[in-house]
Design brief:
Helix content: over 70%
Largest sheet: none
Low-confidence stretches: 1-15
Radius of gyration: 21 Å
Structural class: mainly alpha
Order of helices and strands: HHHHH
Distance between the termini: 57 Å
Strand content: under 5%
Shape: elongated
Length: about 160
């Protein structure tokens, strides 16, 4: 399937405003739950489609590990903010630390999800899935860096 979907809308979707949206949300929720279930069922993933070239599977795993390293760095940064900025107000330190810890957790979960989606796409012969998460993560890390520079610079002056 290409990025341009030219299929007509589902029958009945336009007949009742909002009905198609609710059904679409339920369908996406079910699909997401099924995909998370596949995190724990590697045999089921392997049974799908054909085995891809091992080089591509290994490259997918290396990408997964890079995402995990990023997650661990964010988690480590959260603990570092809490421990090594003692001169800052406790609420500010807590907010910054929690933001980094939550970012690390989301990054780790996204790593598993992206690995699975790519593995399934390769097995089915589909295009690899696209993701906005790298952009969101880069913007969040950049914003957090600016905030941290301000906190350190203004904290040292006070």
């Amino acid at each position: 399937m290409t990025s341009r979907d030219t299929r007509p809308p589902a029958a009945g979707a336009a007949a009742e405003p909002g009905r198609g949206q609710r059904a679409g949300r339920r369908g996406r929720w079910r699909a997401a739950r099924a995909e998370v279930g596949l995190w724990w069922a590697p045999a089921q993933v392997r049974a799908e489609g054909q085995t891809p070239d091992y080089r591509f599977s290994l490259a997918n795993e290396r990408t997964f590990l890079a995402w995990l390293r990023t997650a661990l760095a964010l988690i480590g940064g959260g603990f570092a903010v809490d421990q090594f900025l003692p001169d800052q107000d406790r609420p500010l330190r807590t907010v910054l630390a929690i933001a980094l810890l939550v970012g690390g957790a989301l990054c780790a979960l996204r790593a598993v999800n992206h690995w699975l989606r790519c593995e399934r796409a390769m097995r089915r012969g589909d295009d690899l899935p696209i993701s906005r998460f790298p952009t969101v993560l880069a913007l969040a890390v950049g914003l957090m860096s600016v905030v941290m520079v301000l906190v350190v610079a203004l904290g040292g002056a006070g």
